[in-house]
Design a protein that fits this description.
The complex is a heterodimer of chains A (about 230) and B (about 950).
Chain A: E1 18-27, H1 33-41, E2 55-64, E3 67-76, H2 86-90, E4 95-101, H3 105-121, E5 127-133, H4 145-155, E6 158-161, H5 170-180, H6 222-225
Parallel strand pairs in A: 1-3, 1-4, 4-5, 5-6
Antiparallel strand pairs in A: 2-3
Chain B: H1 2-12, H2 23-29, H3 32-43, E1 64-66, E2 71-81, E3 84-95, E4 100-104, E5 114-117, E6 122-124, E7 135-140, E8 143-148, H4 152-179, H5 196-216, H6 226-247, H7 253-259, H8 264-270, H9 272-291, H10 295-355, H11 359-435, H12 444-519, H13 531-546, H14 553-559, H15 575-597, H16 599-614, H17 623-631, H18 635-657, H19 661-667, H20 675-684, H21 703-716, H22 726-734, H23 739-753, H24 763-779, H25 781-788, H26 794-803, H27 811-824, H28 827-839, H29 841-846, H30 850-858, H31 860-863, H32 867-877, H33 883-925
Helix pairs in contact in B: 4-5, 5-11, 6-10, 9-10, 10-11, 12-13, 12-15, 17-27, 18-23, 20-21, 21-22, 21-23, 22-23, 24-25, 24-26, 24-33, 27-28, 28-32
Classes of the chains: A alpha/beta (about 230), B mainly alpha (about 950).
InterPro entries (chain B): PH-like_dom_sf (IPR011993), PH_domain (IPR001849), Rab-GAP-TBC_dom (IPR000195), Rab-GAP_TBC_sf (IPR035969), Rab_GAP_TBC_domain (IPR050302)
GO molecular function (chain B): GTPase activator activity; small GTPase binding
Protein name (chain B): TBC1 domain family member 2A
Amino acid sequence: MAAVARNTAGGPPSAGKIFQFKLVLLGEAAVGKSSLVLRFVKGHFHEYQESTIGAAFLTQTVCLDETTVKFEIWDTAGQERYHSLAPMYYRGAQAAIIVYDITNQESFNKAKAWVRELQRQANPNIVIALTGNKADLVNKRTVEYEEAQAYADEQGLLFLETSAKSGVNVNELFLAIAKKLPKTEPAGTRGQGQTVNVNAAAEESKGGCCGGGGGSASAAPGGAARN
Amino acid sequence: MQSSETSTGAPSRPVAVPTSLKIPDVIKITDSDAADDFVLPVATIRPETSTERLIPDAGAAVPLQFTAEKLSGWLTRHKKTLGMKTSDRKWYEFVDDRCKLFVFQGPDEPVPQESIDIGRAAIVVDPEFSEKPGVFALSIDNQTIVLEAFSSDEMRRWIQELQKRRELFLKIRSVDTLTRGHTYSRVNSSNASSSPAAVEENRSTSAEYDFCAQPDEPTGLGSGDTSASGVLVSFDDILYRTTKAPLYRPDQDGENSAGLDIPSQHHGRNQPSPTAKRSENKPMQAFRQMFGPNKVEKVDVKHEKALEDRLIVLQDELLLARDELTAQKEIVTVLRRQLDFTTKEKEALRTLVGSTDKEAAQMQILRDRCRLILELEEALQNSRSEKDTLVQRSEILKNELLEMARQSAKLRENLRNKENAIVLLTEQVTKQELSGPRPVRNGSQRSLPDTEDQVQKMRDILEAYKEKLAFLNEEIVSQNNLRTEMAGREEVLLGMITDWEAKHARLESRLLYSLKDMASGKVKSILGSPEDEVSRIRQRILDEALGGSEADAHVKAVTECDRYGFFVSRLHYTNEEYLERKALEAERRQRLVNLRKDPSSADLSAKWDSFLTKQTRLLQKSEELKNLMRIGCPDGHRGRVWKSCVEWRVSAIKTVKGVGYYQSLVKDTAKPLASSAAKQIKIDLCRTLPNNVHFMNMESDMIPRLEEVLLAFSRHNPAVAYCQGMNRLVAVALLFLNEEDAFWCLVAIVEYLLPGYFTINMIEAQTDQRIFRDLFATKLPELFSHLSQQLDPTLYSFNWFLTVFVDNMHPDIFLPIWDAFLVEGKKVLFRFSLAMFKYFEDVLMEITDQNLANKLLRNLGDRVTDLRKLQAIAFETLNPFPMKLVKARRAVHLPEIMAEMQQLEKLRASVSQSHSNSNNQEEDDL
């Protein structure tokens, strides 16, 4: 079910150009950054995911219409004292996912701080997605969807509420980012700010629809995103 | 006239018993047999009236009426009156109770013409009358009555009878006078002549009487013969003394000793010997009591005792016989003197007879003396013969004594031997009692033979056991050989099994890689078979290889954990990765088995053993330990060695903080704690080692300890408090140390081995990564240039440094790295980090794809299967390891990073400032 992205390599033949993007995940500790990546890359979920030391590097490929997007995912450590390392990872990144825990208000505040830092410090064209994780824990919600949505609209961010545990909106999140990324240059050239135009969202049939991941920040909540 | 004188004088004159005549003594001193014979007639005395007239047969042809009752007969009396010799034949009758010879005209004549007092008469047989054989004389008061019997035989009978009866009379009268005066009884001496003993007695008594009577004779031997009477008296005494001696016999000892004057020397000679004998018997009795009745010996002893007793008796008898002999010799001597005396007397009398009127009377006396001499000679003869017999007897006794002595000596020898034997046996018994726990009880009679039997039996059993033991020893040796052989074979087989396992796992992983490729569509359906069938087959093979559904994978993982509690969770990996890991695991196992088989590993464990035995509980830092730790510590010693390594670092601070510091940190919950730290610790507890059974969930045993240590450290060092990564360090420490030691281990690492790594900006950690990059470029320039086109190697090494390789690495690899790290510190991290890249240099050089390189590098730790190779690279290949360079690079990078950090902080401060400003602005706008 979550094999959407992974199996894109076997997707449409001669899908056009391949675009490669550097994506960094930021957010407070234990909000689910690694779990989101694991869900996206491997389709797994572990109740107790080892805390990330420094950063973890993974790659994943997403197939859009006629184009293939390859993500270099940098999963960073969430604990504050590792933040000093963060510039090393977000430097040159075309995309960033800032994750907070919907049951933890503090993590939302921290997310805002990351947004500001990236806006100041990172690539000016960086695509930033705000993600409220642990959507499965609706009962314990402290960060309202509307509040986050409003903030994202205001800051011009992609916004989705996801659940790494259940897999809701995980692929959608990455697809939305992939779609939003500017596709100006062909893949294969590594470097900063390289973007390739994505002409078509060559979605693989069995990967399910990710049409909900449009550039618009007004994506539906997790449950609604699935067709 | 003579007769009247005698007759008148006879009744009136009291019979004077010579004082020297001790008749009872004389009776006593005779043989007991003779005494009995004598007593018997006394008992049969028939009282007769004095008036009773016993009339002999008148016309009897026998001149002498010699009956038991009466002595009577015809005798012719010769008288010399006025030179004229007359002789008339008369009837002479002896009246016992008067002791007188009455003269009758004939046997029937009632009134006697004359009486002769025999009691006062001396009977003399004069040799001068030899021409007339039947003549003898009775001399009374200087008057001699010559009587003639028909023959000399008859004369002798007369003399004997007269003597005998006179003696009897005198004796009875003396008894009567002593008791009741004048009561006379007739003594029956019927068998007086029947026994020779009686004759002999008669002779001796008569002789005695004569001797004794001699001094009473007023006209005896004249005034000059005092010497003779003195001789007689002394003779008498001797007789008395010597005859007394034979009475003294040992068997009569008890009865007679009271009444008799026993010579003391007899006692002296006799008494000690029995007591001595008795005292000699004492040890024998003691032995008998000790060893019970040894029958043979008892008989011997009894026999010997009897013999000894007999010997004593015989010795006594011999002594007595000797005494007797001496007495007899004395008697003989006396008798000889007497004989000489009488001969002299005779000579004197002869001269007297020749010169005086009383020649005839003197001749009579002489004749008497001659007869006495004859008698004495006869007695002497008897004594001599007696002496001879005694001598003979003494000779016999001597021989017997010698025999006895010989026997006694023999028996003594016997006894001594037996004593020796007993002593020997006693010693043996004592020894056995001392040595063995078997006391000889229930009486000694059974113990000796029983013990011997038992000893024999025990010896047999011992022999049997010895044989059995020898056999069992052989058996043990052979069994041990067999066991060693089997163990060797088992080892070989295990190695083979592991080899096969590794091969199997490798094939499996290759198969799965192929399957993965097929699944990913890289390999299209071959041979034109329908695609859905291929995928079906593929799925089946995959399922088989994975061994069950994902649902039970977790349970399975727990049961398959290694000795440290680590397991490979299938949930963490894709199917391909999982299978690859399994393959790697098998390969690692194979290498471990090969290592175990390698003799160097045996050397290594021997080295460790010899090293640790030399050490105190707390090990000291040494080159030897450093070298050993570079190879790795055996699991069993790791706790001790780690604790020692930690101690080297923290002993100073431990001393400062004092005993019980850790406990106080644990209890001191009131101490203000950075809430974020506590919260983070709580969140991270189960995110520390989720692939280890001790830490896999909140219920796991070591989770509370982990929290305790981390919280204690956050109180101990608030500046650091808690940094992610420390949780893994503590978790690994807790696998080998208790909470307190794990705490100090964390202190050692955070504050001493890796200072500045876990502080707010982690400046040192970042600096070291830049140094490492420089080092990498220096040491492995080709690989560095190749890799750095795709990715930054510090992306991976940062993890290794901060967690000391715990992250994403197999415990068989990271634990030996810990060993070396705890001894040598941070440079070990540089060495091994470089070695990790070097280990996979060839593989990495072939990879040009960033993704593939990343994939490999992310799991680099898991892929290391050959620890020895890695160690060899770290400590040999990479030498010389330039720590100078490290220092030099640090000098460059540290200020760099510090500047960057300052800049970053400034930026963040400004961002947050602008954010709050903008917020304020917005609020203002509103």
